[in-house]
Amino acid sequence: MTNSLRQSADSESGNNGLQRLSVAIVCFHSDLVMLANTIDSLERSLAELVASADIDATLTVVDNSCNKDYGQSLQGLLESRSGPELSSCSYIGATVNSGFGVAHNQALEQVGSDYHLILNPDVELAADAIGAAVAHLREHPEVVLASPSGTNDQGDNQYLCKRYPSVLVLALRAFAPQFLRKWFAGRMYEYEMRDMVAADVVAQVPLVSGCCMFVKTDAMRRAGGFCADYFMYFEDYDLSLRLATQGPVHFLPQVHIIHHGGYSARKGWKHIVMFARSGRRFFQTHGWRWI
């Protein structure tokens, strides 16, 4: 969390005319073909809103790769975007990889907007996703953060909203073999809020995934952005809980994405170690729940 973000929130005022949307994507050697697909889907989802002069949108991409060749390729991709959907497309090249949250805070410090979309470089937005999300945030000014519904490449549900976790559930997700997870299927289903997804209605939720977060920019600034103490993992849960002190956090089943990412357990032991460290920090901050 940074004081500069909190201070800028005090000077950020509402806009009764044209609404402003800022979009931030953080890359770390991200696949550029997939990133191009993400930006294509972003532009398609913005097209109708921009054509009706209903919204002005900007994109900021933060490159945490710290690699000159990759950075040049990424900048070339961004410079090739010439459509009317984005009024500006900015590149920030990090000199040090300080983590997902810090990079998003760098992007947030550069923008002035009413709504802010935190987007992973492996997410595709439905054509009506942004319109539906912005409409909900306009109609419900008390809501500070909204999460979409999601599927993976095969069309299987991805449960992007969660109930407060226990150490047991997180250990099962990170380390347990598939047969052991089945023994605790009820616990897993409850944690993943599968009942809520099946109900297919707007609902208030405790925690949302950082792969796609629609947030009120002033609320994000007042919260101080992401906590810099989390290098990777759980920074989205921590932010969800801090934002929830300002207003409701909603799940929006009418807003759909495809998320091509996966669980930390599929990414090797280094990611599992980071997952465990961040999980410990989360519980130390917000309270331990063992089972």
Describe this structure in words.
The protein has helices at 3-11, 32-51, 68-79, 100-109, 129-139, 167-175, 178-183, 185-191, 194-199, 217-222, 235-243, 269-286, and strands at 19-27, 55-63, 88-93, 115-119, 123-125, 145-151, 157-158, 161-162, 203-204, 207-208, 212-216, 249-259. 42% of the residues lie in helices and 22% in strands. It has one domain (3-286): Spore Coat Polysaccharide Biosynthesis Protein SpsA, Chain A (Alpha-Beta Complex). The protein is built from twelve helices and twelve strands. InterPro entries: Glyco_trans_2-like, Nucleotide-diphossugar_trans. Residues 23-170 form the Glycosyltransferase 2-like domain. It holds the Pfam family Glycos_transf_2. This is Glycosyltransferase.
Task: Describe the secondary structure blueprint for this structure.
Elements: H1 3-11, E1 19-27, H2 32-51, E2 55-63, H3 68-79, E3 88-93, H4 100-109, E4 115-119, E5 123-125, H5 129-139, E6 145-151, E7 157-158, E8 161-162, H6 167-175, H7 178-183, H8 185-191, H9 194-199, E9 203-204, E10 207-208, E11 212-216, H10 217-222, H11 235-243, E12 249-259, H12 269-286
Parallel strand pairs: 1-2, 1-4, 2-3, 6-12
Antiparallel strand pairs: 4-11, 5-12, 6-7, 6-11, 8-10, 9-12
Protein name: Glycosyltransferase
Domain Glycosyltransferase 2-like: 23-170
